[in-house]
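Dear colleague,

As promised, here are the two records you asked about, laid out in our usual form so they can be pasted straight into your sheet.

NAME FIELD: protein one
SEQUENCE, THEN STRUCTURE:
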Amino acid sequence: MSRLRRGHGILLWMLALLLNSAAAQRDGFVSIDCGATSNFTDPVSGIVWTTDEGFVGTGENKAVKASVNDNARQMKSLRFFSSDRSKHCYTLPAVYNSSYILRAMFLYSNFQAASDQYSFDVSIDSTLADTVSITSADVDTPQVFEYVVVATSEYIDFCLLPVDGPPIISSLELRPLAPGMYDVVHDGIYLKNIIRLNCGTSGTDPTVRYPDDPYDRLWITPGPTYTITTDQTSKMILVPDYNFDKPPMVVMQTAWLGELWWFTPVPQYELQKTVSYYTSLFFAEIQTVNASGIRAVKLEINGIFWGALNVTVSTNTLYQRDLIVDNQGVNFSLSALPVANLSPLLNAAEIYASRAAVVMRTNDVDVAALVSVKAALGLNSWAGDPCLPVPYSWVTCDKSSSPRVITIELSDLNLVGTIPASLGQLTALTDLWLDNNQISGVIPDLSTLRLLKTLHLQNNSLAGGIPETLSLLPALTELFLSDNKLSGPIPASLADRNGLLLRTDGNVNLCSATENCAVLAAPGPGGDNKSSGVSGAVIGGAIGGVVVVLLILGLLLFLYCRRRRRPPSVPTAMSEIASSDVKGASYLAGGGGAVAPSIRSGGSTAGHVNQARGFSLAEVQRATKGYEKKIGEGGFGPVYYGKLPDGSEVAVKVNSEKSGQGTTEFINEVSLLSRVHHKNLVSLLGYCEESGQQILIYEYMSKGTLREHLYGKDMKGTLTWTERLNIAIDAAKGLEYLHNDCSPKIIHRDIKSNNILLNGKLMSKVADFGISKLAPDGDDTHGVSTLVRGTTGYLDPEYYAHNRLTQKSDVYSFGVVLLEIICGRAPNSILHTESMQYNLIEWARGQLLDNNLDSIVDPVIKSGAYNMESLWKVAELAMGSVEPHGVNRPDMKQVVRGLTEALEFQMARSSAVDGGHDPFSPFNSSPNTTESYPMSQSTVPSVPEHAGATGGFAPLFTPSSTFLRLPSDGRGSDPGWTYPKPR
């Protein structure tokens, strides 16, 4: 190490530390050389690297063939995992409520041929942390993912989740931190390292880590990109106790000197995952300064003043907990304050992305029960939380705040062992499949599984009797016990139970509850035993009778199925839809044909007279003329125009084979839309599930999507400001209905201009409930936990960061739509006058902060009649709706009220200009005409249904000095336009 030569005292101190560390590394260090076959000790750091044994139960060891730096032996092997599991987990020992650095490295190299690109996810406990993407171009580049986390139990699970190819990992490290370090981290927040700089070193200096840094942080040298004066010292730089993040002394002994401009790019992926940024800049005097010397530094971030300090020999630190950056990154600049006579100085820096951690865990009782199940059936290689962030491949969980296990499917896995009695603790279980294995022992008491509907134990080696306690399961509808070694009578409470499908064939020692079960006696001398012959005759007769009965039943079932053949029903997970109303009410030509069966569930019948009806596939094909006219495409699949025999026009959505979420969307859309009815929501008229196809049939909206009237190459027409206001109010009312008047309440989750459809009269309706979620009861601030779904550009940043969906997530998305309506621009696009990406929210926010509403208004609006106060009202409403924190956003009721006020302003303006004529008639004024606009609510003689008494609607947008301002593109500027006065 070159720094050991800076001074004799430093040399002795560092050497002593090094030797001590080499002999015994710091307590609590976990250093896994993934894929290695033996342990080793790093000769420089003294860190002991161990194999994967004891930390993970899956995967194969693989050697890396490419040449790797000899000082990085831990990168010369990797652990390779299959893609046939939902996750592979390392379990790392930890101390509850202690903070750690968790670091994973991935080097694919050329241990085998790499595809063009593949990826996998990584998770920390219940939190889906990142995606690792590997391409053929960067297989020899190590990828480092480092986090600061707090242990919420006595272990930390680090899991790899297959996405598009098998996961790999090269090394995994856990490093304990001192109390108070990175104190923003707690059980709801974790940090991801973006960059950690050791300023002032040369590009040839090695990365500083343990033992120079007792916490084994990796302090990197910036490299030749930063050409600035540097300096170093050999004197002691003391880090005071109040500096909790404790930069190592060797890092503080070097520095950048002079005026500094420093740009740190932050990938878009980080921006989407991140709540804020935890930033630390470290300053310490390393030069000899005379009494008159003053080193006073001013720091700006993206041109905004951040802070200033006098640099002394002891370490000074500037912290930033809520750093907001734009789409490009963060621009730091250091300069001297006017009182200074020495240049600025910077010794080190750290930037972390602050992210929300999922604090949920699977129900503790269910976890304990599954531990017993795994031990009893040889499934101990499954580690990590059973349900989060994704469940075990053989488990299905509900969506509660403490998830419960509802399904276990372990069929055809050749499992051996016994069924543990602790299985009865999984009281939310509805379905249990353990069939086609080699499970032995007896069937335990499962009478506590009051929700269990399906129990499949056939084709095993289970012995003993059928427990009478199974009759105590009120929801049980399928009990399959065939082909085991069960004996004794079949309980009458099961054999005679209505609605229970019971199968017990293949158990030769079972008998009816009314019979005396025969006991097979040993044959007498010569095999001529009378009782044996009688028993044989009884058994033979019984078997013969059973065979005859089964043949008759099979024939009757075959004839019944032929007679009753019809399109298969939608999965039983959906709500029942109009079981009585469907009969005889088909849309078939001439009234012939069958209607698809009603959709069933354990819930009550929806009971609405306008419920969705079942269609056969032949009906759908006739209505669309063989899918002749395609009118759209969505995540569910293509959309076709159709016409029913009664003349009704319909839009037919056909599930694409490429859709990975078709079944879920199908179930959600049918079950939700069939019971949701509002004039501003697109009506679901019917459905079809037949021959592997899932089809949804909606009312046809002839004017297409709102987006097609705002921008793009496929525009179908333009909209005046009055029309846009009416469309916005319609859509807002539809959302308000979902949020407040539905029972249960519904969160749409994918509001965008493409999901707001227009009919021939330009009435708008909200469409596409494919990924909707039921809202939680009561207070909506906590939301419902869900994996992030939606459309880029419309996603609520809180939802993205926390995986907690609330009604305010819809409000955020609708705020983006309002900006589209005002600006006539996409959420993310290329500026017309500049070749650069822009974010609609930040661009609009910057212009509004400059009081420059005119620069963002769609020129189409300017060409017609509009009221500036009305525009300001909607702009304020939009910016309030896209506030970063949901608590600061309005609810949809407030949004409807604000839009109604804006319409009243607009109508008052139209009435004033047109002399009281039709307020919706277009008015073309000269762009150079100066007009006065009403600045208070006016009385309108003729008000449509949108307008009404709104009360005092307070402005919802309060500009913040932290908002970034992006340059205007000058679109539609007009020198004759009168700008509004400051508000």
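NAME FIELD: protein two
SEQUENCE, THEN STRUCTURE:
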Amino acid sequence: MSIRLLPFRTGRFKIPGMGGLGRRTVWLGLAALLFFISVGVSVTVGALQYRHQMRLERNGMWMTSQASLEAARFSAALSQYLVGQAPAWAVSERFEIFYSRIRLLESVPNEHGGAAVDMLERSLPELMLRLDALDADLTAVLGGDSSMAQRLLRDFNELDGRLNELTRALHRQAQHALDRSANWLSGPYWLLLGSLLGLLLSTGLLVWLIVVEGRQARANLVKAEAAAESQAEAERMLRTLIGGVPAMIGAFDRDGRFLFLNDALARFHGIREEDAIGRSLAELGLELGGRDLLDWALGSTGPTPQTERRVRNREGSIRTLLITAVAVSGEEGRRGRVVMAALDITERKEAEDRIRHLAEHDPMTDLPNRLLFSARLRARLRQAQAGQGGDFALHLIDLDGFKAVNDGLGHTTGDKLLLAAVERMRGCLRADDLIARMGGDEFAVIQAEARHPAEARRLAERLVRIMAEPFEVDGCQIRSGASIGSALGLRDGQTLELLQQRADMALYRAKADGRSRSVLFDPAMEELRRNQRMLEEDLREALERDQLTLVYQPKFGLLADRMTGCEALLRWHHPIHGAMNPGRFVPAAEEAGMAATLTRNVLGMVCRQIRDWQARGLEVPVAVNISASLFATDQAVQLVREALMVSGVPPRLLQVELTEQVFIRSADAARAALHSLHELGVSVALDDFGTGYSSLGYLQHLDFDVLKIDQGFIQNLGIRDDGAQGNGARGNSLWIVETILRLAHGLGAEVVAEGVETPEQLHLLREIGCDAAQGYLLGRPMPAEAFATLFTAPVGGAVPHAEGRAQDAQPARP
């Protein structure tokens, strides 16, 4: 098994003129030198410290030993004196020597500490006190006082014993120091042996490094040759890659001469690389980039922003290129080369333009949509405010009857009608006018030149006239028409929102006045709008305070000759304006979004009245008209279901009347609503039948229980074509009523004639077999109590009435 050692690497320190091997040799030499210096210093310091400590230990021990020796000599001299064998002066001399030795113990150094030396320092004060006491006793004994001899000997023995104890302690500490020094000297010994072993290993490592460096040098040479080959291969691969990408890439010097270009760039301009190298774009007659882009790149620190430029290719076609350039730094940071890249984004730009066009234009008519129209109108306002565009006018256009055509004849016919209407309107406009489709059958026109209100009126009236003419669609003649509301720029609105709002006010007025007409905004319309809002607030307050009431118009069965039910009619006595016509406040409620609230209120009052009559033993079917706007969703059915559940009224006693507007808004929603109402057990009546555009078409698909013939046909019964009136005469209205009657009976529906006012009308209706009738001849609208009184009476004689004729024309239509 072989082990591969990684080459030893040093830090970033470098010695000039030396390679890796020389640097490693120097570092190893320095390491060995430092090693030997460290060992020598460690041994020397240790030895000095040991000798110093031993000297200190020996000095303390020597002094205590000398003191003990002199104490023995003093004891011998004292004993000889006490037996008369020694003179007093000899004893005194020995005591002085002994005293001096004790005093020397105060000079023992304590630099390194130790328990024995510390004990010596603590004991010295006591020794000195004992020594002074011994001195006094000795003086007395030598003076002839023999009685002090025993005390002298006792004090001396105690002092001698204490001194011997200190001597033994110092001896033990010296012995411990010797043992510790011996152990301490073993460390440097092994350290020295380890250092010598490391030196041998370092020498071997040095030899190994020399061998490894030789092998590494040979390996590096092989790698350098391989890197050169790899670099050449990478260069070939890079050229292949650059040549294969769809982007056009070229390299230039500072003077704009080609240094390199790929195949895509050569194909785009129809040139060859060998012909372009060394020549500038201007010399070749090419438009790519240009000198300005080259200078821009040379003066920038990074790539230039991507810019779009339109460039002609070799075939002469104008293409859109996305171009960027970047300068390449050479030696010493000089920027003398530029690389330019371009991508042909012509197809992408065309796709973006198509997407933008689709986002800003109506897909069917290709007219600007609401988004683009708003932007153009806002820009036109800014120009006019800056005095750059002159006066202009805004016309909002609604096609009349388009919904009926779309529902009755199909969406395909409706789309063709829209296209035909657009072509007609375009024919009335000038080149600088703008027409847009705002949605559905709504259009808008910006009249570029309208210096006077008369010019705006003329264009609007011309549009109304041209749109009133019949359209030929799929071989059918269709009449539509247009209602137009106009406003003058700046004069009628300084902002987009205000101008559109006032043009919309004029359009609303045009519709309210009967459609197929044009109206120019007048400031008085805002006053009407304010009054309308005030009316809405008053109506909202009236609903909250239960100020609305109901009256009931009798409905008579002509075959049974008796009262069969009634129709609930809504009334409002305004606290300021008095009796308010339902034809005014009911549409106001619908426009203010109160249709559901008003309907809930009316249904609640009707159901409570039915329940009250039931409590009195009267089974009275009541018809109530519900707003067409509620049938666009399931709201109408929900309100009826809610009223029946809350009141507990039998569904058979409630009849829902609706007009043709329900089907014009949404035929599918109306069909679903009728089905749901029948499931609830409620009967459904079609009110004002015969006045709409396509009522017969609805009868083919919708299941009605009752058809109420519009009073316009009933009023003409008995009138000849020449205008003469006579008994039994049959005019056109009679034939129409008879046809409706047969049609309804064929569908299984009951027929009710509205607006019966003369005995002759009643006679003719009975003669042709009409089921029921209502009108002033039979009974005017009256309060609930009056109706209950007449409910069981047969038809005949004058019927009491409670209200004047002016208020009886409108049903309770929330």
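A couple of things worth noting about protein two: The longest strand covers residues 562-574. The radius of gyration is 63 Å.

Best,
R.
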